[in-house]
Predict the structure.
Amino acid sequence: MITIIAGTNRPASKTLTLANYYHNALNQRGISSEIISLAELPADFIASDLYGKRSEMFKPIQEKISASTKFLFVVPEYNGGFPGVLKTFIDGCTFPDSFYGKKAALTGISSGKYGNIRGIEHFTGICHYIHLHVMPLRLHIPTIDKEFDHHGNLFKEDTLRFVNQQIEQLIAF
Ligand SMILES: Cc1cc2nc3c(=O)[nH]c(=O)nc-3n(C[C@H](O)[C@H](O)[C@H](O)COP(=O)(O)O)c2cc1C
């Protein structure tokens, strides 16, 4: 089971569109996965689930994280970095059993030119700090608005080649 983290709570995000694409692509390969979208977090997460507190709403999310051994983070570029809500989510998850010794693949996306290069680099450092092993192939998908067809599927040859390579590597990781 691979847990796909859609790393923003923005409604109708491209991040969630891409997370759904990964979910279907894994499914087609016979690999089960589930998506945790940060849009599912309690609205008052910073009050309800930080610094030792745990809300009823977050409990099932924490249980899924604790039970997972492999993650795929889809991380949009916000102001030249990764979204604050993603760091808050990591801070709210129990330490160390949420991520310690587990594995993750990272994909950065942006509407601009850079595909969240800086955000993914920064997030990689945080993953290393919490002992989450990051797969060396990290993807960056710029101009994400031009990447999906009307069904939310990727269609560009280059993007598909890298995404398929990443998926195969993640399965084997
Ligand atoms: C708060 C915020 C900051 C953003 N900052 C950047 C940025 O620095 N560079 C960029 O290319 N796109 C930026 N964007 C645009 C996102 O990359 C764009 O919305 C893209 O679709 C991925 O984000 P999404 O998953 O929220 O859709 C920003 C969007 C938001 C909401």
In short: The mean pLDDT is 98. Residues 65 and 98 are 6 Å apart (CA to CA). The longest helix spans residues 157-172. The chain has one domain: 2-172.
